[in-house]
Fold:
Amino acid sequence: MTDHVLTLNAGSSSLKIGLFTAAAEPEVRATGAVERIGGAAALTLEDGAGATLGTRDLGEGGADHAGALDAALAMLREHFPEAGIAAVGHRVVHGGQDHDAPVRLDDAVLARLAELEPFAPLHQPHNLAGVRAARAAFPEAVQVACFDTAFHRHHPFVNDVFGLPRELYDRGVRRYGFHGLSYDYIAGELARAHPALHAGRVAVAHLGNGASICGMVQGRSVASTMGFTALDGLPMGTRVGQLDPGVVLHLIEQEGMSAAEVTGMLYKRSGLLGLSGISNDMRTLEASDDPRADEAIAYFTFRIRREIGAMAAAMEGLDGIVFTGGIGENSARVRREVCAPMSWLGVALDAAANEAGAARIDAGGDVGVLVIPTDEERVIARAAAAALG
Ligand code: ADP
Structure:
């Protein structure tokens, strides 16, 4: 029976899959992940409650993306032999200027999305490789692309543009914004459980390995800290965040670095890792007594505060802050260090609720502060199920 949808999230060295029922509100049956593709790749599969169904070592260098998908599908079929796949939903990082919603994939759409590869060279080619592999594996299924950029496509001009010569804007050099699937999910949760905040002005901080803030007014994005690429805005695990472009020129012209070397530095060796010299992982930094770890966390939380202030200006006020992503959902310290110096904006934390990881952590001030676990896979599954009509 073709009564299920599959979600696929292909990153540079990882592949995440999800098996959901094909309902308007899909039920998760299983989630799986292949980590370290190209290296010592390993597959794990869990059921909907998070219990491990299986693990498999794919061997050193033993799997590329197609091999990883094959292995994950084989394990899925073993555990869910009855589940037919009616639709596959794909995370695709870049939808360009055209797409403000999920789209059914055909050859023409796929060709246009491939033209965007230079805009997101570290992600888009892998996303589209996943699409091609899934089309081959499920030729009868509906294939749907869900874009990280789509949620941000209706920014006002001033939040969509750089102060560059106009022809670059016309050629697509714009502030696209990313993490849109996460923000879409959070907007839905606000509408469902916090309608007053949904109707207001909320800064949503998605803090994971990648990190950004979205200014949301009445559930719609009006600004993002991420720009043309997912490098801009907040410092991240290994990415630099906002940077004077003069630094890039200096590195190339004075320090003799190649473009590839600068790219590697800005994407892979900066942010929390670069500043601390210890780790990109917040748990490791919080556990460290090295002062450089404290300084890296202090810079991270300061920049989050600065950008929340900027979002308040962009939204002409602030009614709420939402923390999400691995750090936002789990680090009481980061939430505390972000919020404590923002009393001037009407932000007051309930310290005990914050430490306990409660869903609502404000002390009843002007600004509601929430912790909402995100679920990007569910947003993809909903779109895939919706495409079935
Ligand atoms: P990705 O962006 O790759 O999806 P996640 O959203 O899973 O990443 O976030 C990963 C980050 O969350 C890591 O820096 C990790 O240390 C951090 N994190 C996870 N759990 C905790 C915790 N209990 N305390 C502090 N940080 C945490």
Summary: Residues 194-371 form a domain with the Nucleotidyltransferase; domain 5 fold (CATH 3.30.420.40). The CA atoms of residues 75 and 81 lie 10 Å apart. The chain has two domains: 2-147, 194-371.
